[in-house]
Structures are given as C-alpha cells and as structure tokens.
Amino acid sequence: VIVHDVNELTEKLFPIVEAMQKHFSAGLGTYYSDSIFFLSVAMHRIMPKEITQIIQVDLDLKYKANIRDLFDEFDNFPEGAVIGIAREMQPVYRHTFWQYRRENPQTKVGDPPPDGLPGFNSGVLLLNLEAMRQSKLYNELLEPAMVQKLTEKYHFKGHLGDQDFFTMVGMEHPELFHVLDCTWNRQLCTWWRDHGYSDVFDQYFQCEGEVKIYHGNCNTPIPED
C-alpha cells in the first residue's frame, strides 16, 4: 500500500488541468482544490513510470464480483484505447449537449445506447497509464487550446470533473476508450427521471445482465444482498 498526499498530488495536477477546470467544474472560477476531481485525466503524468495500470473507483460502490475480473478487462482494450469506462446511465449529457443537438439534429451525441453516444460515467475507471503516456493524441487533447476548441465546438459546460472531459473527448475520439459493460458500473441514480426526462429515461437506465458493481450515485441506496 502506498499512501499519496492529496495536497502534493494537487500541486502536480493543477498546472496540467487548470485550463479545463473552468469548463468542467461546478464553481464560478478555477479553484485549486478542484484539481483533485481531474486526477484520472493526468494520472499518467504524476504516477511513477513503473506503475502501468490503475483501477480508480468512487467510494459509493458495492462489489458483487471479484475486482480481479475487472482488471482482466485491460486485456480487452482495442489498439489505441487508453481508458476503460462505462456509459452514463442517465440522460445528463442529452441535457448538457442540448445546443449542439439542436444545431445538429442528425447527431448521435447525447442519444441513448446502443446506437447513441450517451457519454461516460467515471465511477469505475481503468487507466492504462502506459498507453496514456504513449498516446500522442490523448496528450494533445490535454492541451488548453484543444480543450477550448472542443468545448466551443460542442457548446459544452459541465460540472462533473474528469467525467465531463472523458465524455466530450469520447464524442470526438471514441477510439481512445474501451467501453465497459454496464454491469461493471450499474448506476442507481434516477435524478433525471424526475427532472424533465421521464419519457426517455429508461432507454438510458436499462442494464441487462448480472450486476458486478453497484454504484449508488447521488446518494442512492444500494440493494441489500
């Protein structure tokens, strides 16, 4: 077990993610403390080189399967993919991309699966740090000018940190991501069902198969065994 000091990590992170914080943070400005919500985005830059793969998870999870099986998913990454992540299971990005969707009525951006691009949920992340280090494309996308370019293209303003960054990048470069099955991040939050999207909510929320990890996001109770 290696313990990392949060303040030290934040100090290293801040210069890398400062530019994206104003686009993907809930606050009005760019806050130093917000940097930790972008840890996964630049993990390959701050972890020792000998660490080549990391699973990063939220705390509000309940495991129904062996985490070793999740680690095996690294073997399923297609060539060029650097991150494993499951789809977002609410129409949050249907909402966030509303202007882009209005201007591009044929787009799949924000549409539900299986054919749409609903965005990602960062509650369970597989970070192939070595692939992230080697990927010229991924590292270019971290540059402030590229972040600005994409946020302008998609009229994007989010508040969910790394999840927003991965979602926006995934709209433009889906080849960077290995999409995990929903059973590895079975989100339980239903907030958007009661906030204007009840008609389409179930298209995003459905998840077939035996759940391996429950995610009690937005303080949703997790089922008892």
TrEMBL record:
Keywords in alphabetical order: Transferase
GO MF term list: xylosyl alpha-1,3-xylosyltransferase activity
Superkingdom assignment: Eukaryota
Signal peptide: none
TM segment ranges: none
Acetylation in keyword set: no
InterPro entries: Glyco_trans_8, Nucleotide-diphossugar_trans, XXLT1
GO terms classed as biological process: protein O-linked glycosylation via N-acetyl-galactosamine
Pfam family, one: Glyco_transf_8
Any GO CC annotation of this UniProt entry: endoplasmic reticulum membrane
Name of the protein in its database record: XXLT1 xylosyltransferase
Gene name of the record: Xxylt1
